[in-house]
Structure formats: structure tokens, C-alpha cells
Amino acid sequence: MELVPRYRFEAMVADALDDLPDELQHVLDNVVVQAVDRHPDEPGLLGLYEGVPHTERTGTEGPDVVSIFRAPLCEACIDIEQLADEVYVTVIHEIAHAAGIDDERLHELGWG
């Protein structure tokens, strides 16, 4: 599908954050979530978590960063409804990594 306007994509990311499972809400206290057009080195990447998972923090770390990539998500979807779903799944996936949840556990929980 075509690239959706940035304001619309950012609204989808915000909606996904509002709808996070209760188990992940605490993670948002120390995570910056940003909408970015595309990763410079991995153009097909949908999302990226950068930081120290909450299960490994010592208390001296700065905020973590979650990037949600607009262009590859739009390219992977056929319509706006599918895009909203994929944004939600990507946001959960990356926030779960911030919480210290690996891919295997994400699938067990039905979040990835």
C-alpha cells in the first residue's frame, strides 16, 4: 500500500501503545517510542528495540528507544486495517523486548 501520512502513522503507534496488555504498561516509564521512516542499514526492518531490558537494568541506564518503521510496514500491508494490526503487533513485539521477553515467550503469550 502507499505510504500513509506521518501523522496518521504516529496516531496508529499511539493507539497501539494505549492498547498494550497490562503486563507491558510498566515498561513505558523508561522507553521512548518513535515513528521513523526506515532503518538506514536494514530497510526492511519493521521495528527495533535499543536498550537494556528491564530484567537486566541496574538503575543507571538512560531511557530505551523503540523505533517503529513506517515505510516497510506500509509496504508489507494491503490496506489501512492490516497496517493498524501490523503496527500493533510490532509495537507489542518491541515493548516486550524492553520488558525482557524473548521471541519464544512472545509466541507463547500470543503477542508475536
List keywords for this structure.
5 helices, three-stranded mixed β-sheet, Zincin-like, 112 residues, alpha+beta, 14% strand, single chain
User: What value does the Rg take, in angstroms?
Assistant: 14 Å
Q: Which CATH class is shown?
A: Alpha Beta
List SSEs in N-to-C order. HHEEEHHH
**Average of pLDDT:** 93
Roughly what percent helix?
A: 40-55%
- Which structural class fits the helix and strand makeup? alpha+beta
Low-confidence stretches: none
CATH architecture: 2-Layer Sandwich
Folded structure, characterized:
By secondary structure, the protein is α+β, with helices and mostly antiparallel strands. It has a single domain, classed as Zincin-like. The chain has helices at residues 6-18, 22-25, 70-75, 80-98, 103-109; strands at 31-36, 47-50, 64-69. It has a three-stranded mixed β-sheet. The chain starts with 5 loop residues before the first helix and ends with a helix.
Concise account of the structure shown:
This protein has 112 residues and is α+β, with helices and mostly antiparallel strands. The chain has a single domain, classed as Zincin-like (2-Layer Sandwich), CATH 3.30.2010.
Helix-strand blueprint:
Elements (H helix, E strand, L loop, with lengths): L5 H13 L3 H4 L5 E6 L10 E4 L13 E6 H6 L4 H19 L4 H7 L3
Parallel strand pairs: 1-3
Antiparallel strand pairs: 2-3
Helix pairs in contact: 1-4
